[in-house]
Amino acid sequence: MTDAVLPALAETPAAPAAASLTAKTRRRRALVYVQAAPMAFVFAAFFLVPLLLTLIVSFWEYNEYEIIPSFTVQNYVDVFDGCLNVADPCTTVRTYLSTLKFCALTWAFTLLIGFTVAYFVAFHVRSATMQMALFLVCTIPFWTSNVIRMISWIPLLGRNGLVNDSLLGLGLIDRPIEGLLYSDFAVVLAFVHLNTVFMIVPIFNSMARIDRSLIEAAYDAGASGWQTLWHVVVPLTKPGIAIGSIFVITLVMGDFVTVGVMGGQQIASVGKVIQVQMSALQLPAAAANAVVLLGAVMLMIVAMTRLIDLRKEL
Amino acid sequence: MRDRPRSLAFYGLAAFFALFVAFLYGPTLTILVLSFQGPQGGLTFPMNGVSTHWFAKLWAGVGIVDIWGALWRSLRLGLVVMTLTVGIAFFAGLAFRKRFAGEGALFTVAVASLIVPSIVVSLGIGLEFRLLDEAVNAVAAATGWGWLQDHGTLMGLYTSALGAHLTWTLPFGLLIMFAVFNRFDPAYEEAGRDLGATGPQILRHVVVPILGPSLVGVALFGFTLSFDELARTSQAIGGRNTLPLELQGLTTTVTTPEIYALGTLTTGMSLAVIATALATSLYLQRRKARRGLRLG
């Protein structure tokens, strides 16, 4: 009898407290959703819904005046029209090959330069203040206008630019090199110029987290500088390399501005195709191209993350 | 490692770094110099005298597009994007410190927003607003409501373009807030709560002052990324362009150093904003240190 009553008595005063506690927790729970709601709204309204609409509209029909809700795969057929012909590749394949070429070159250069710069700042600069200052020096241009940074190559690369003038002056060439500007070379140069920062920051971040005693241990174990770099620093920097690579790849794959300005509006790119179709109001065609581009980029990212995970497991 | 003498590698790498900095800043410095080209000067060296002729021409507006209107629009939009980025990212950062349903999804979407090619996002937003316009027109035709007729387009600076910019600035803001809150000691909030402060009071008097310098960093990202944004804005802006869009158009039409003057001007503005942000951040850190709150 007492056994049954006592717990009941003991519970009575505790019950309201527990109830008010849950009310408080519930309010705090609700608060979390209120705090996260604005961001969720922005991404829903300006990212998820637009992507979904792009997918839907890519199956619509269109004529010169309007887009017509329906379901057709014609837009995708148009994208890949004649692409099975290997000898004479279709426009889409040629455009993707050109964009992939820019992508590969830019990736290789930004990775090499970004890694070297980050390695220098992270491991060879000794004072933290100096590290921060040099890091800032690398990132400040990122906060200035990309178009202006592209234009600023004109006085250097132009027909009468500094590079040609200097080479002429030195007698290394006897007439100006055409095609320094408005060429594949100029496009890759600008890509590297603009995007190396996306490699430096994540790689530097990864390097800053490496325990310095690991480097000491490698030296003590008799590893040379190169061996330490290759067997200790590089593997530990992989997450940073992966993040930087994803940034560079998506920026180059979807680009139409750099290719446009530095290519003198003469070089094709996937992003430019979409932009041109969009301004011609061929919205479903542009949407289909966008879906294909998104798919291609996602494949590349997945492949990249797989590659890195795989190596980790080996 | 730190106590060893400088190795040969150090000097090699230092030289490489110096070259990289020259590569990074050299071209911009070139157009800075060339923007003071004399009235007869061209787009390349040599300098044909030194003058502020091209700045004067720029100031007068010349025949080219309404550059000052575009600059003004970009500035206003940048300020709005900055404010929203700081506010939204700050509160989202607070939310992510606790568990909530859909946190994984929200984080994934934020990262996806960063890495989906800008042209795809821009196209999607453009499509969205076109379809919205059509829907509004359909409603207007069906109901005959006067206030809905001739509404023009919903696309504009503070609707579609603002949204497009936020998809670009918010992921950066959120990632910075993650890094910041990782280093934030919740003991300070606990202390505030123990002293009887309410939630808003703790935010106002404890969290915001401690995080101040980092919030300035988020603001810097918000403003400069918006001010220079081009790819995401391209399909998601109505008739009136922002400055980067006008600049892109000018690259094919302007063949005088005027465009360098414009470059010098916008780069100068960006640098002024960066300097202000860094100075404010430093000032807040100093003040914090003076007041005895030694926390980042």
Structure description:
The complex is a heterodimer of chains A (314) and B (296). Chain A has 314 residues and is mainly α. Chain A has helices at 2-57, 74-79, 91-124, 128-139, 146-151, 154-157, 162-170, 184-208, 212-220, 225-253, 257-262, 270-279, 283-313; strands at 61-62, 67-68. Chain A folds into two domains: 2-57; 83-313, MetI-like fold. Chain A contains 13 helices and two strands; from the N terminus they run αββαααααααααααα. Chain A has a two-stranded antiparallel sheet. Chain B has helices at 8-34, 53-60, 67-95, 103-115, 118-143, 157-182, 187-194, 199-227, 243-253, 258-290. The radius of gyration of chain B is 24 Å and the shape is globular. Chain B is 71% helix and 0% strand. In chain B, α2 (53-60) packs across α10, α6 (157-182) packs across α8 (199-227) and α8 (199-227) packs antiparallel against α10 (258-290). Chain B has 296 residues and is an all-alpha fold. Chains A and B meet through α1, α3, α4, α5 and α6 of A and α1, α3, α4, α5 and α6 of B.
